[in-house]
């Protein structure tokens, strides 16, 4: 991993990131912090604790002299999937964990932020700085998940409560299709800025002539698909996608509700009428693919997307590609527990490219490889067509 | 249902009961109120809301002039299984309900208590008073469930937190076996005091000569059963019980943990060493039955128990009987939604008799028929032998 | 167990029973013998082998001098639930067992019948004769299950094939209701004829005045229940019954199909129109109970039924009672593997009384206690009302 | 699809293929034809019927004048996943279908073979000939599945029966690693011979320098992996792979049994000791990938494999690649029901390249793309390493 290491900025950035995480939770009541409505949605309390544990576990415990753990129990409570670091609470049971309380967790955050902040004043090796950087990137990734999870929790309350938030999709300008010429292109992260191991290994790839839409598919277009029977025509779907539609009884994007003949949509600002001009959000890969089939087009590959990215107007929603999440040639898994970060998810997942309105700014870059299983859609995810 | 109707007392009892429910929650943090670790454990918040909703739905909305609902949403949130009263949140989803907040629910309680309290000052018909009485009995039943559910929530925290509580099992005196003579006996509730519909229909039953233990089985006796291989000898178990032992990997009562060779037990006061002289608690019907098989004895029937009850020293733990929960001759289901209270559970459940330390005082009577499915054991339940 | 032991007859009866089992399979092709469409339906081959294994395991291997097992593998293949006798194939996997072939199994039957038949010419102790008797009773019970299982297998073929069979329900005469007087009655098996351990322990029971229908509920009456919305009115159902109706999407008795507005029914003679005058068959306990609720009546207890039995015209269909299957006072489980026969099923099951057209003649007696879980209905089961 | 159309050969090939299918079943008893031990293993009878139905449905019914269906029911019974062609029996229920009998199915095969054979004497259009060709390719694919399914059925019999078969793995010669130079290569099917739509769209791809093993991983090498704790070290596994190992309790390849300290293996010739020098068979993608991790190497991509194929000695076992099954650039799905053949499986599956000893000869070509989900391993599948 390449890391930019100007220590003075690092401390400021660290404190800013820590603050941002808590800012995302500003509309929450204590009651909202511990619930886990489905296995893949973690309680906000867990995110707050886990991002803190990461710094305590991989930085302070390892490198800071005389550091005393805030509490022995917290390691067990807030480990996520790092099997190398010891026992951990089962993912599906996170919502049972009412203790430590949210007040305790905020204390834990303060304690660790304070110690790490002091530690950053010391003269640290590049190795340590790299881990701090990863911890910050990690916390930023959780900021985005935190937004998704809060939306899920609130979107499943009978009263559809609204939050204070600046997140608001905008209409995109339609400039038709962008053309890519056939040829060999370079793919992967080149600069000295931070990136994840899965973006590294700059390499060549051969791309065939194709066209990529300048804008995301809108709600209006998606409603046409629904009204044309998109969800009932198995010819448009992958076999697994069709099974998913049937077993989950899917008939619209997530958070859509038809009320008295009108499509309503839960947003972070509450339940509102679906705006036909905005990009469609909260669709799974299966839905994105079926929509493209219906249009007689397809989804771009992640390589086509990366090549076209300079000409694209992106950043509102993550965009499903038709690329499976696989290692680049010469991909090297990082050593130790940090190595569990990416490589072990390189099967059964699809790549999303771009960024969303919930993405922290330093996570928005053309080589970033986001990934989810093809049935998920509680994240901010839209559709860009190719042909 | 027979009801005792001295109105002045009624209001006092009503307010006392409402206070007791909240007293049970006195050690809880806001974080603890919304979780539902397994489907059969309801969030404490739900109990607080549901018992309140019962009074609002069946008394105030029906009978109090110009009563205004506290909130339209609460009816949907806090209905339990009364299909006759409209839509309701699915039982397994109660733990997702972070809103209304616990503060809102306490406000709801105050509002309804206030209105009901005022209403009780009016000149009310016997019918209305009966429903109020049922509401109070209902809330008392939930008090006991609340204790069980809080214990389950706390007993599944990594740190095993302790509560403030007076609940403490005592050693019982062993007076050997009590004999019952063969003959015809009367069973069922006779006095004018309140009882549930399932206790009514006083009727005769024929009982054969038998002996019933004067005390409950102790932890010490139960550990002998464990050490003799009780959980690995299928000959001691019902076929369904054996399936349960295997699929749930049961090797001890609930809340027991073997730590460095010593049996520890989570109690409301925290994790303590198992006291050999105290009654064994948190066993399922399957375990109670298997233990009796191992002893070469059996469990009493609920009729034998009721006949013997005057001579028994009971009230620490509910006692599994070998009687299925079935209607008495001439059982009459109550009319309307209240009729959903008991009759519809009269299949696949077994009767427990007696009472527990968590039972509110007016629920402790010799004709009381408690019932659970044979695999449950998060309630306070022990074993009394017969032969 | 009481046993009638005239050896000469025993051998004749043994051979007759063995022949009858095979006669039930006379319409089957080789293809039909190995399938297990649901876990509770065993392949016909399994019944043929298992009933044979019982004689080999409990009689020949134990007592016959120099007896050589037909094959070592067969014991593993055809043990059912006798945990005491060693490993066994999992119940749900019986349908995977294509080997031994059905030809091998018929050879196995001949081999064991031959040896047992020779063995019966010796001078045998009462103990041995008792086990032979149990083996014959056991095979007869499997004859009835074999009929049920064959019906299930054929009733789930797309082409609804017909069998050669004499089984044909008849219209019953309606003599209104039979009255039983209040008082103490004796229950249980008294004669010296064979019976199962669960019928023994003659004992007294107190019965209250009641009335029992002289005939079973007809298809015509049941269609009224359906058309009155019986399957959509939760007030008529047990809580568990209602869950069953919803999750299994039950809208009629088993084997009923509505075709162009007409109720059709798969019978052993193929798919025929439902005859309104015949007794309704293939209903679960939940359905029987709901029907009785709808009629404002109830099901009889097994004790009321036994007392009334002399006056009843029964034997076409097993009749659901409202009695849970529980041990009689002083019930003694038989020793050893045979003891696994009955006692371990005495939880979560309901008693059926009477007999069906598929019941072998010596299994038709007023004290016989049949039992099934309340959701099953692939057996021949009807409804008799009480009030 | 490109098709070779010399009609005279076509008829001979057709009849030869039909015969081969039946030859694979030559060791089966009638009992073996109808069972479905797990959902993904189809009964042999079903394969025999389904491949026949394909010709009847897509050729004879469509194009042959005055053709009369063999039976109306067979279409329902033997449709597989062609949603476009109407209702079909649920995949998981195929094993319940004891009727039509295997004799009927052989009659069906003769009837359709006879009619199709006559039809091929007519002067047929290229379109029709193409569908016949696809039908033959389809039947050949099922021949391989038939071998897998028969092995699964026999490998799960308590007595591990042997079959008559020529299938026998051979030791491979180890010539070290083959090098591929960096550059642009052409991928995809070029000749006029038959291929599937997923191989078409010849296109360029950029390949980086790499090395590919000349031989498959042996049983001996795989046992080293097992003994080094390969199945207990989560660092070697994908997250999904690790879940699979835990939930399915995987500790060795499929069909392996450790008996008295010796690794035994069920083969089509019965249970034999594992031969250390033969290629390891019946591993999932997860296992192949974990083995490569343990070796510090990786699996080749399907493109590397295709480029190297001329130098490889392959054809004993299908070889897992690290490529997800995705469409080639300009992939065109075939029209109509035939279009359901490939494209809809292009998610959640991994590509296998090469061929196995069970592969019919015309299915063995370097561009052939086989695919399965990463957890399956009842097919013949081995491991080739790359670095």
UniProtKB/TrEMBL annotation, chains A, B, C, D:
Q: Where is the DinB-like domain?
A: 15-144
Q: Which Pfam families match?
A: DinB_2, FGE-sulfatase
Domain named Sulfatase-modifying factor enzyme-like: residues: 176-309, 315-387
Keyword list (alphabetical) reads:
Iron, Oxidoreductase
- Report which residue ranges the record marks as coiled coil: none
**Superkingdom as given in the UniProt entry:** Bacteria
Give the Gene3D superfamilies listed for this entry.
paralog of FGE (formylglycine-generating enzyme) (3.90.1580.10)
What pathway, per the record? Amino-acid biosynthesis; ergothioneine biosynthesis
UniProt name for this protein:
Ergothioneine biosynthesis protein EgtB
Q: Which organism is it from?
A: Winogradskyella haliclonae
């Amino acid at each position: 991993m390449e890391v930019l290491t100007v220590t003075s900025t690092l401390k400021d950035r660290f404190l800013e990131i820590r603050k941002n995480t808590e800012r995302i939770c500003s509309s929450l009541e204590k009651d909202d912090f511990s619930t886990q409505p489905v296995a893949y949605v973690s309680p906000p309390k867990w995110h707050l604790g886990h991002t803190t544990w990461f710094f305590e576990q991989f930085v302070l415990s390892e490198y800071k002299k005389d550091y005393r753990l805030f509490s022995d129990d917290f390691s067990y409570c807030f480990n996520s999937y790092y099997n190398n670091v010891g026992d951990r609470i089962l993912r599906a049971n996170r919502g049972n964990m009412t203790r430590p309380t949210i007040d305790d967790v905020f204390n834990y955050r303060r304690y660790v932020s304070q110690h790490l902040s002091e530690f950053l004043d010391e003269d640290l090796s590049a190795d340590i700085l790299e881990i701090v950087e990863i911890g910050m990137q990690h916390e930023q990734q959780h900021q985005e998940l935190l937004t998704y999870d809060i939306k899920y929790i609130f979107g499943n309350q009978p009263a559809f409560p609204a939050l204070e938030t600046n997140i608001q999709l905008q209409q995109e300008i339609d400039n038709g299709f962008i053309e890519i010429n056939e040829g060999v292109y370079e793919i992967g992260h080149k600069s000295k800025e931070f990136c994840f191991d899965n973006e590294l290994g700059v390499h060549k790839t051969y791309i065939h002539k194709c066209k990529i839409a300048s804008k995301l598919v809108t709600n209006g277009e998606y409603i046409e698909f629904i009204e044309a029977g998109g969800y009932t025509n198995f010819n448009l779907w992958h076999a697994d996608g069709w099974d998913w539609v049937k077993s989950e009884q899917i008939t619209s994007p997530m958070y859509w509700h038809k009320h008295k003949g009108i499509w309503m949509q839960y947003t972070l600002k509450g339940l509102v009428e679906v705006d036909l001009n905005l990009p469609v959000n909260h669709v799974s890969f299966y839905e994105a693919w079926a929509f493209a089939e219906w249009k007689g087009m397809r989804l771009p590959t992640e390589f086509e997307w990366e090549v076209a990215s300079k000409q694209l107007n992106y950043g509102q929603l993550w965009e499903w590609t038709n690329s499976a999440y696989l290692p680049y040639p010469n991909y090297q898994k990082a050593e130790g527990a940090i190595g569990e970060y990416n490589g072990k998810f390189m099967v059964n997942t699809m790549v999303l490219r771009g960024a969303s309105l919930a993405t922290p700014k330093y996570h928005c870059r053309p080589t970033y490889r986001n990934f989810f299983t093809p049935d998920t859609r509680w994240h901010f995810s839209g559709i860009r067509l190719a042909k």
